[in-house]
From TrEMBL:
InterPro entries: HTH-type_LysR_regulators, LysR_HTH_N, LysR_subst-bd, WH-like_DNA-bd_sf, WH_DNA-bd_sf. SUPFAM superfamilies: Periplasmic binding protein-like II, Winged helix' DNA-binding domain. Belongs to the LysR transcriptional regulatory family. Keywords: DNA-binding, Transcription, Transcription regulation. This is LysR family transcriptional regulator. It comes from the Bacteria. GO terms for cellular component: cytosol. Residues 1-57 form the HTH lysR-type domain. PROSITE patterns: HTH_LYSR. The lineage of its organism: Bacteria, Bacillati, Bacillota, Clostridia, Eubacteriales. It comes from Proteiniclasticum aestuarii. GO terms for molecular function: DNA binding; DNA-binding transcription factor activity. The keyword Transcription regulation applies.
């Protein structure tokens, strides 16, 4: 079992032995995930799971021991690779940061520009994808840190989460929309209205679906997209209403689009998350600390050499 397969095993355990859920979060097929485990058990002549009619029911004693050791191995592996990269490059190196497109535009334009400008010897790689894909990459150690929305549903024993910005979701619509004259609107005011929302790869989509379900309302989703500026654009000359974080109003200049807050808004909590480990490289510590201080202490980004 290689290091990635070890992570697959951990993912199965942390998702209550549900292969379907684990495979979706890992973005691999359920048969492939099952095959990894069966192959390992056959090759090592050991059973990791108890089964009932082919369904995983619980860990065997050997499986419990293997899980405990697997967590240690993953941490040691991360430390080994971090130390190797750090000593090999001194203060030169690469930091891979996952940020959803909306959050990148709304919150991280200045942050990333300053990090890159002030540290020419550090390569900052920005992975711009939806929250679900970034979460999968974080689980497989394909990212050094990610910026996601709360809740992330990550194991708090394995990942550290820090809230760096709190705000609310608002409705955005054409100034000609009848609801645009309201100071605030209720969620039920959207009943039967044409909604343009983020697609399923974005956490906001699932937050909205959860909200509508909680009030027993079937929303009229007329359009879905992964582009926040497109969602805003379509509201200008149509009856479409889109729902986005309130700070987005600071990043467009459409006079014919209006933001209307909700009476009972959904909280928009942005978190910086990264794996819990005993050793961070100097570059990792610098990046995490710089982002933390920028958002929580309102301090400008400084170069690593000035830290």
């Amino acid at each position: 079992m290689d290091i990635n397969q070890l992570k697959y095993f951990i993912a199965i355990v942390e998702n209550d032995l549900n292969l379907s859920i684990a495979s979706k979060k890992l973005h691999i097929s359920q048969p492939a995930l099952s095959k990894y485990i069966i192959k390992f058990e056959e090759e090592e002549k050991v059973r990791l799971f108890e089964r009932n009619h082919g369904r995983l029911t619980r860990l065997t004693p050997a499986g419990e021991n293997f899980y405990a050791n697997a967590l240690i191995v993953i941490e040691k592996h991360d430390t080994l690779m971090s130390e190797f990269r750090e000593h090999g490059s001194l203060i030169k190196g690469t930091v891979k940061i996952g940020i959803p497109p909306l959050i990148l535009t709304v919150l991280f334009t200045e942050v990333m520009a300053d990090l890159i400008r002030l540290n020419p010897d550090i390569r900052f790689i920005i992975v711009e994808k939806g929250a679900f894909e970034l979460r999968r990459m974080l689980l497989l150690d394909e990212l050094d840190l990610a910026v996601l929305l709360h809740p992330t549903n990550l194991n708090e024993l394995l990942f550290k989460e820090e809230i760096i910005r709190e705000d609310e979701l608002s409705a955005f619509m054409s100034t000609d929309n009848p609801l645009a004259v309201n100071k605030t609107i209720a969620w039920t005011d959207l009943r039967g209205k044409d909604l343009a929302v983020f697609n399923e790869t974005f956490m906001i989509h699932h937050q909205l679906m959860g909200k509508f379900k909680s009030i027993k309302m079937e929303p009229k989703i007329s359009l879905m997209s992964g582009s926040w500026d497109f969602l805003l654009e379509v509201t200008r000359t149509s009856s479409f209403i889109t729902i986005l974080p309130a700070p987005i109003k600071e990043h467009f200049s459409f006079r014919d689009v209006r933001e209307v807050p909700f009476e009972k808004p959904i909280s928009w909590q942005v978190v910086m998350t990264y794996r819990q480990k005993s050793h961070f490289t100097r570059i990792e510590e610098y990046t995490i600390d710089s982002i933390r201080r920028y958002f929580k202490e309102k301090k400008k980004i400084e170069s690593l050499t000035n830290e």
